[in-house]
Amino acid sequence: MAAISHTTAASELYSRLTARKMLFVLVGSGLLVALALVATATGSAEITVGDVAAAIAARIFPFLNLAISEQTSAIVWDIRLPRIVMGIVAGAGLAISGAAMQGIMRNPLVSPFTIGISSAAAFGASVAIILGAGLVGSEQYLVITNAFLFALLAAFLVYGLARTRGMRPETLILAGIALMYFFSAGTSLLQYLATEEEVHTVVHWLFGTLTGATWENILVVTVIFAACVPLLIKYSWDLNAMVAGDDLATTLGVNTRRVRTVSMALATVITAGVICFTGIIGFVCLVAPHITRMIIGADHRFLLPCSCILGAGMLLGADTLGRTVFLPTIIPAGIVVSIIGVPFFVYLILRTRKEYFQ
Q1: How far apart are the first and last CA of the chain?
Q2: Whole-angstrom Cα distance, residue 13 to residue 160?
């Protein structure tokens, strides 16, 4: 009878926890939609949330015959909505990449940027801006393709260095830090040799911003996101097992090397696909997964999608603050996110790994 009672209590506790996580998904999704509408309505040109909703509905459902002025439609669809949608997709992509990377490394201070992705992307963009050189791509997309390919190159080099020592988390982190300093030094050298105008362009790219987002860019990022995220979620159970250590995960039948390699590759592709269009936007991939884990726990089945919701809201909120608080000056989203993220980063440092994953 006692065993039955304990089983029933455990089942009830699991049901409550699952309900809590589902409630987070529903409430978070609703708040994200509301924030997107408010952000689209916010700006120098005064339009209401109702105008935004009507403009969106008129374009998606033309048979409704809604009366929307051309000016309102242009503001919503050509100026503000691309920025809003890019913020949502980029924030979601960075957050889920951070959650996956922290899971496979078992370290709360790890993000895709830790393995040198951001530094490599910055170096690639600097090469295109200052030297006008690139691996592939036309002049129009030289910066984008350089940033993307150098980010992938950094992950490949980290993987190659770490593979010689068994793909352990510590080896991956150390290899990533080494490459981060290497590419940062290369970027600094190029800036030292560049003209003032070229340095200004590089620095502006490094700030990280959603300005200039287009529907074509959004399509590319969305395709990358949609292709990689289901594969990451597929490894949710394996990531849960790996949190307890590679030895225990192996006894449960998890191929830790394969899971770590594939997850790292997917997180890298998502992150590279985002930052090649937005520039360096840090802290979303570090802070959003941590806040989500504090709210719903460390179960990656829910942690990964919920991190997407919170990351999207965080980046969208930061961009909205940056473009409205100091009008007519627009503060890049990367700066606003960093200002918000630094206190959380300090908080992460003060927490132990054991406390973090409980």
Answers
A1: 30
A2: 44
Rounded to whole angstroms, the Cα distance separating 19 from 13 reads 10
What is the reported pTM?
A: 0.89
- Which one, of 92, 158, 159, 171, lies nearest residue 119 by Cα? 158
The residue written with tokens 């998904």 in the block is 25
Q: How many CA atoms lie within 13 A of 185 on its CB side?
A: 6
Two structure tokens written together for 287: 């802070």
DSSP 147-202: HHHHHHHHHHHHHHHHHTTTS-HHHHHHHHHHHHHHHHHHHHHHHHHS-HHHHHHH
- Six-digit token string for 342: 């630094």
Q: pLDDT digits over 189-202, tens only?
A: 999 999 999 999 99
In angstroms, the Cα distances linking 184 to 325, 351, 356 are 32, 28, 30
User: Do 53 and 73 touch, CB atoms closer than 8 A?
Assistant: no
Beta-carbon count within 10 A of 65 CB: 7
DSSP structure string for 217-230 = HHHHHHHHHHHHHH
**Around Cβ 171, how many Cβ atoms within 10 Å?**
16
Distance, CA of 243 to CA of 105 (rounded, Å): 8
Tell me the C-alpha distance between 213 and 29, whole Å: 23
Record the tokens describing residue 320, joined without a space. Answer: 């909205």
pLDDT per residue as tens digits for the range 329-345 = 889 999 999 888 778 77
